[in-house]
User: What shape does this take?
Amino acid sequence: MKKLTKEDIKQEVFDLYDDYAHNRVNRRIFLDKLSTYAVGGITVGSLLSFISPDYVKKIQVSQDDPNLKSEYIHYDSPKGGGSIKALLSRPSEAKEKLPGIVVVHENRGLNPHIADVGRRAGLAGFISIAPDALTPLGGYPGNDDDGRELQRKRDRNEMLEDFIAAFEYLKNHPECNGKVGVVGFCFGGWISNMMAVKVPDLGAAVPFYGGQPTEGIENINAPLLLHFGELDTRVNAGWPAYEEALKQNGKEYAAFIYENANHGFHNDTTPRYDREAAELAWQRTIDFFKEKLT
Assistant: This one.
């Protein structure tokens, strides 16, 4: 069987996977369309395996990292899903109160990759909380396909309340300095934008390729740092109008569009990952939070 590389994959395959990952086509249609790219020794199975997440080999920070204190907790979200499970991470030897970051998952619950991102934020000198919005339905089920199906059963505005409650939990945590920002990816990018609209004392918001709000933009107080992939035409289509509204309302923001990067370019468990763009975007994110939350 041919060993695939990113260069073997046509952009149309990444676009097709994006449609599947965001529930615009079902699995049967996805596999049917995927088969049209299984040529020249490439099989459907090898394509599917290559573009699917690899959580085993891609974890950057282990749960038992000695430099990190990381544990699962529950917090109350009375307006959303009740009690929500979340991963709380911070440096093991912190000598003072830390700025906080809410880490918001994609449209499939708190999978291993987003938990890893939460731990990365902890190692960077923050106290982070990475909630699982699927908690009321039993939590992340162990694979992304089932996770997406579960998340479709929840109202996204109720999930927004869950993440706002995480902000309040972190803001009042005894190890937090009271300054809390949010970073989110895909669905989590939308949550990040919406928290900027809904939470007056949010310290900073960093949406990665997230959907944009269309109203309430005048209420935003938090500075924004927005990351987009150049090839992500679906999400990028809403950016010009959002940027114009931010300008008209005098809001503080910075936006970066990463050349030749796809939607999901920060997720290092799939071939949509763009290492150069991801590392640059993450460093910008950490620097931004250090500036705005300390």
